[in-house]
């Protein structure tokens, strides 16, 4: 049976291919194709038409290899995405002075022949890991956005209700909501508190806590009221100021909700990986995510 080693040097928008057999036999000299659906279909047909068993290897770098690996795998071809260090350390690098896509493709094909029986086939688990990487990038983006929205809201509240963000330190709920933000939505200006009598505020605060399904503490209510009487706001309590605060709260709540939805989705997706129970038991979710990157 013929062994056909397909080495692919992947780059953005196109890839270089080389197809070799044992003892240096060249099935196809290096050639490049652009990543279009038509070109990939033609490549699949070309590889399938070669006599013998074909195994395709590419380096697992960046994101450029992912769509190509997926399409070739879905076509029923044996595909393996390997750590770039394995290719770098393979063979003699002493004469390698200048990077060449053709030389890289040939080297990958030679590595394919040398590692034929040890190659790990691209699978559904690889796709799940790719999805996790994409979600992690989105998670990082929205976390930065959430931090920016939080700082923006605190900056505005410093002009209407200074220090209100320090009143509560409870963690965010599953929907992303936070106690101090909910409080600021109800009491967006210090005059919302101090222009009431103590008893009126305690009663109002208790009803607000009940609506939000949070525990009520009379001592906490009295502490908040006492602190409010000493504060000096920079912005007036009017409709324009209220609009500014409400918009900032809405932006933060949206970002917080997205972060928590992504967090839950990442945990749900990671649970499909075979290593999930072991790694979660030993290291936790962050370590599991690091393994998938």
In a nutshell, what does this entry contain?
The chain has 293 residues and is α/β, with parallel strands linked by helices. It has 12 helices and 5 strands.
Structure description:
The protein is of the alpha/beta class. 56% of the residues lie in helices and 13% in strands. It has 12 helices and 5 strands. A 5-stranded mixed β-sheet has the order 3-2-1-4-5.
Features:
single chain; alpha/beta; 5-stranded mixed beta sheet; rod-shaped
Lay out the secondary structure.
Layout: E1 3-11, E2 14-21, E3 25-34, H1 37-49, E4 53-59, H2 65-74, E5 78-82, H3 84-88, H4 101-114, H5 124-160, H6 179-186, H7 191-194, H8 198-211, H9 218-228, H10 239-270, H11 276-282, H12 285-292
Parallel strand pairs: 1-4, 4-5
Antiparallel strand pairs: 1-2, 2-3
């Amino acid at each position: 049976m013929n062994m056909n080693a397909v080495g692919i040097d992947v780059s953005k928008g196109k890839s270089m291919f080389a197809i070799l057999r044992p003892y240096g036999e060249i099935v196809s000299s290096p050639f490049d194709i652009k990543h279009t659906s038509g070109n990939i279909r033609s490549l699949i047909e070309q590889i399938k038409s070669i006599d013998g068993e074909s195994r395709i290897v590419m380096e697992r770098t960046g994101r450029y290899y992912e769509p190509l690996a997926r399409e070739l795998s879905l076509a029923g071809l044996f595909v393996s995405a390997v750590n770039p260090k394995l290719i770098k350390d393979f063979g003699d690098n002493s004469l390698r002075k200048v990077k060449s896509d053709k030389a890289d493709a040939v080297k990958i094909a030679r590595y394919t022949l040398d590692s034929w029986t040890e190659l790990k086939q691209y699978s559904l688990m690889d796709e799940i890991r790719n999805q996790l990487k994409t979600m992690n990038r989105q998670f990082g983006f929205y976390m930065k956005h959430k931090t920016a929205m939080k700082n923006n809201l605190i900056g505005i509240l410093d002009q209407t209700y200074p220090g209100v963000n320090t009143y509560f330190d409870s963690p965010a709920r599953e929907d992303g909501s936070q106690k101090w933000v909910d409080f600021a939505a109800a009491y967006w200006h210090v005059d919302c508190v101090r222009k009431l009598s103590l008893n009126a505020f305690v009663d109002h605060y208790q009803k607000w806590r009940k609506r939000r399904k949070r525990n009520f503490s009379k001592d906490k209510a009295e502490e908040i009221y006492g602190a409010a009487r000493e504060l000096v706001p920079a912005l007036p309590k009017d409709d324009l100021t209220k609009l500014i605060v409400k918009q900032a709260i809405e932006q933060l709540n949206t970002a917080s909700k997205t972060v928590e939805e992504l967090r839950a989705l990442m945990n749900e997706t990671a649970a499909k990986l075979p290593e999930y129970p072991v790694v979660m038991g030993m290291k936790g979710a962050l370590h599991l995510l690091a393994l998938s990157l």
